[in-house]
Amino acid sequence: MSKFLKGTFILLIAGLITRVLGFIYRIVLARSIGEEGVGLYMMAYPTFILVVTITQLGLPVAISKNIAEAEARGNYAEIKKILVVSLATTIGLSFIITPALIFLAPILSTTLFTDHRTFFPLIAIAPAVPIIAISAVLRGYFQGRQNMRPSAISQILEQFVRITLIATATKTFLPYGVEYAAAAAMAASVLGELLSLVYLLTTFKLKKRFRLRKDFFQFVHKGKRTFKELMEIALPTMGSRMIGSVSWFFEPIVVAHSLALAGIVAGSATKQYGLLTGYAMPLLMLPSFVTFSLATSLVPAISEANSKNNHKLIEYRLQQALRLTFLTGGLAVIILYVLADPLMELMYGSTKGSYFIRLMAPCFLFYYYQGPLQAVLQALNLARAAMINSLIGAVVKTALIFLLASQASFGITGAALGIIVGFVIVTILHFATVLKKIAFSFYIRDYLKGFLIMGISGWAGYWFFENILLKEPLTIRVLTVVTAMSISYLVMLFLFGLIKKDEIKRIPWLGKFFA
User: I want to staple 165 with a disulfide (CB 3.0 to 4.6 A). Which of 188, 308, 389, 403 is the partner?
Assistant: First the structure.
């Protein structure tokens, strides 16, 4: 099995565990602090992503790419230089950004978010910035060496700590006000990040091939060329992420002001935004652990192939990634669309937000494609093009949110529509950019078969839920229907030739059954 497939499967398993744990965290959070508390948490969370993006400076992708190329040449001195320069950069930035966030928190909460209670979650974010800065560099190092296990385990540890602490933390602070409970939830995330960093540092110390602290500052001083090479990839990559982060940062601000123009008061707007981004969106984004795993593995794999001018391997890797995205994303879309109401009832004890799932699920297949396509662009030194694509999508999304959400006839639905249009545009632009760089065969017949299979499986799942096991508890009914839909979907993939026997044989724990 190739390093690419092995790394991808490790990240897939870890990603599934992480997303399930993360979703459990969201469920506990929603049941602990309610719609309004989730709304406060989700209004502050984009600020957290923005400051992390600025601190990381796009370096994780650049580190992964450059270390993969340096290891292919056996240049371990260059690998150390990449690490030293990256750590010095991110740690230095975190010492500037952390106090700036604390200083700006009162202005952000009262002026931009129109809800002064967001001040407390914003303050709780600050300690995480330097922690994540160092963790990002170490993850980039391991990914560049195509060793995905440390990144995978660290993510699982992080989520486990968050879940362990969330219930106790929110219960302790909720009597003081929902804003304090939301801040406690954010603090639980910070402690999760801290344990994740401890694990990464321990693993790095055990597996490193050089002494990092030896001549650290000399390497920093001599690392001008390395810094320049990193920035050539990091800055355009940061540009793409910065656009996404800034767009997400302004999203709750635009939504709050738009809903105010539509006649919706601040408290109600916070609840509605919580339903969209805290209830519906996490469920829709749950399947993206597959595409995240693929994107993380694609950067070093395609960078290595590109450095050897192996264009056939580049196309083969991309075909693998997009095909797996389509097949797994298709199953996720039909399950979410058909079972929107019962899933929300099971998760949150309410069907509020299920409307957003049915509205957005069919278009989320485009979102699942976005990660692998952006990873390919970064690996092919097209990060600048990816940044421009992201900028176009962000501008269109923000404009649509303001135009639609400010009208009483649309309200929060306008925000959902703006989000959908934004990521559809970015995905289409990414794919068009990839086609300009590499030869790519598009198998239309296979996609038509896939859509047919989705339709049949979706109809079968709907019929099954409405007519079978009606007297059983909702949990049993949902699990049975999901299992039936998944089995029928996989069987049809084999029957229609979209999954082949020799492909299953490559998976170590399944291959023995098909030998």
Answer: 188
